[in-house]
Design a protein that fits this description.
The complex is a heterodimer of chains A (119) and B (230). Chain A is an all-alpha fold. Chain A is built from four helices and no strands. In chain B, a hairpin with a 5-residue loop joins strand 4 and strand 5. The chains are: A mainly alpha (119), B alpha+beta (230). At the A-B interface, helix 4 of A face strand 2, strand 3, helix 2 and helix 3 of B.
Chain lengths: 119, 230
């Protein structure tokens, strides 16, 4: 419960999500600084809230929790193997991965996980 | 060339979950980290309703985002071999879960602890007690490691080593177990590069397609799915 309250507190304080749409130069620049290491986002590669993944997206990029975490469960017809794991106690909610495509596609500002050609 | 693919016909599937159970037995399932899961939902509006049973396992993408993210983080624990199979090296996996984050299909399972099959049991069953060195590397389960469907690589590998590629998808010893047990023939495995293989013919005839194509991952599991994907 304590963990949940902490999460909610962080959620309330978080800056609203970055506008999607045409990406601005500032985002490109921050992305480059993260990749080059000029911007310190920590060294621990992990999904834990205190580690790199969340530091990058919430602190460096200022995304709010709800930009990624939906409050409810996935829709019943969402074809996602781990769908039944949510809702989960002490977790801010499932993350529809379609939200990642914008930044992480070939023409996006960040490393392209999606739609890229394999070397 | 050989490219192994699977087709899953959700119009034939009746939701019995034999494939889910078979995968669990074949691949030394540990609770909380299943490799093959059925998603079940209703479609339409009363009185014209339907029920969809769609099993999900690794899509063995041509452009696997799990691998790209793992490489970018510097662990290089994920590989895609020349037969199209995506595998995780448990020894290299750091448990960072970037693959979990980037997979659009929810496939990689972070095995937090290698839980026993019987909660509270004092001793492991003989099946669980099989020594590490007697297991195929893909079955050497470790805590804080990510695992997923391997297309039953431990069954394909011996056929490939023996130069007996044509047995794959036909001989039960060299075919993924989930595909073998389906009582209604809703799952077929084989070589997509062979236009005469059963899997190629079914994909063409039934116009099967991968799901979530918008991610550009080029999955190697095809679905016959009425009403499209979500």
């Amino acid at each position: 419960m304590k963990r949940l309250i902490t999460l909610l507190a962080i959620a309330a304080l978080a800056v609203p999500a970055l506008a999607t749409g045409p990406f601005n130069a500032a985002l490109d620049e921050t992305a480059e600084q993260i990749r080059s290491g000029a911007l310190d986002v920590g060294k621990k590669y992990s999904m834990d809230f205190s580690d790199r993944f969340h530091t990058i997206h919430t602190k460096a990029l200022g995304m709010g929790c709800v930009a990624c975490h939906a409050t409810q469960s996935y829709s019943p017809d969402h074809l996602y193997l781990r769908a039944a794991e949510f809702p989960q106690r002490g977790h801010p909610g499932p993350v529809p991965r379609a939200d990642c495509i914008g930044c992480h596609q070939q023409q996006g500002s960040a490393t392209p996980w999606y739609g890229m050609v394999r070397k | 060339m050989t490219k192994f693919v699977r087709v899953i016909d959700t119009m034939r599937c009746m939701g019995c979950r034999s494939c889910v159970a078979a995968c669990a037995v074949e691949n030394n399932f540990t609770p909380e980290a299943p490799w093959n899961v059925m998603v079940e939902y209703e479609t339409g509006a009363y009185p014209n309703t339907g029920r969809v049973f769609a099993t999900l396992n690794c899509m063995h993408c041509e452009n696997p985002p799990c691998k790209t993210a793992c490489d970018a983080a510097g662990f290089k624990a994920i590989s895609k071999n020349e037969f199209g199979v995506v595998l995780i090296d448990y020894e290299k996996c750091s448990g960072c879960r970037y693959c979990v984050a980037t997979c659009p299909y929810g496939v990689p399972q972070h095995n937090e602890r290698v839980a026993g099959l019987y909660p509270g049991a004092k001793e492991a069953t003989p099946y669980e007690a099989i020594a590490t060195e007697k297991r195929h590397p893909t079955h050497r389960k470790l805590p804080n490691v990510v695992e997923k469907c391997t297309f039953c690589w431990h069954k394909l590998e011996p056929a490939i080593a023996a130069g007996n590629l044509q047995a794959i998808g036909k001989d039960p010893r060299h075919t993924p177990t989930c595909d073998l047990v389906c009582p209604v023939g809703a799952r077929i495995f084989g070589d997509l590069d062979d236009p005469n293989s059963e899997v190629s013919r079914v994909i063409a005839r039934k116009k099967a397609a991968p799901i979530k194509r918008e991610f550009g991952t080029k999955p190697q599991v095809y679905y016959v799915l009425e009403g499209g994907d979500n």
